[in-house]
Amino acid sequence: MKALIIVDVQNDFLPGGELAVKEGDQIIPIINQLQEKFDFIVATQDWHPADHGSFADNHKGKNIGEFIELNGVSQILWPIHCVQGSFGAEFHSDLKRDKWKAIFQKGMNPKVDSYSGFFDNNRQGDTGLGKFLKDSGVDEVFVCGLAEDYCVKFTVLDGISEGFKTHLILDATRAVNLKEGDFAKAMIEMENAGADIVHSSDIE
């Protein structure tokens, strides 16, 4: 069975948000159309405590974009975003949610970031997404959302490692692009790992 995984289409990752992805809002109509093609849909949601270790403001003298070691993992520092219960953490109001089977929250442990919808960044915390999909009979996943070069990429890579036939829906994602070319670099990395790159119009 096929499933659509919608990654982190939240206000803070959209134009005007604290960690805005350029043109991130342009994928919402595409994702809404995609949902009509799937009977099984899940979503992930960044859900950070205010004291999260990935926030630059929580490290004296450190700036956004710098790297630190956080709980044994190299961690880039971000602006404060998607804090639990905040407007920024909410899904965008235009995003349809009526067919969703479940929402998997991530990034709740202040000591480790969590890009992937499946595991945290040191792979010690499991969101339960993989088991939920397998228990539901899903063996093929289509991934879309934000951002292509971080949370989408790692969700795709973990989907492959968990044994799912995994597709990236290229026109239904956008990248942070901290460095020019990050979008293409991430796409190639996913493709080399075994992901199938598709467009929304390819999906029946």
From TrEMBL:
EC number from the UniProt entry: 3.5.1.19
Domain (Isochorismatase-like) ranges: 3-198
Domain of life according to the entry: Bacteria
Pfam families, per the entry: Isochorismatase
InterPro entries referenced in this protein's UniProt entry, alphabetically: Isochorismatase-like_dom, Isochorismatase-like_sf, Isochorismatase_Nicotinamidase
Keywords of the record: Hydrolase, Metal-binding, Pyridine nucleotide biosynthesis
Protein name: nicotinamidase
Species whose genome carries this gene: Belliella alkalica
Upper taxonomic lineage: Bacteria, Pseudomonadati, Bacteroidota, Cytophagia, Cytophagales
Name of the coding gene: pncA
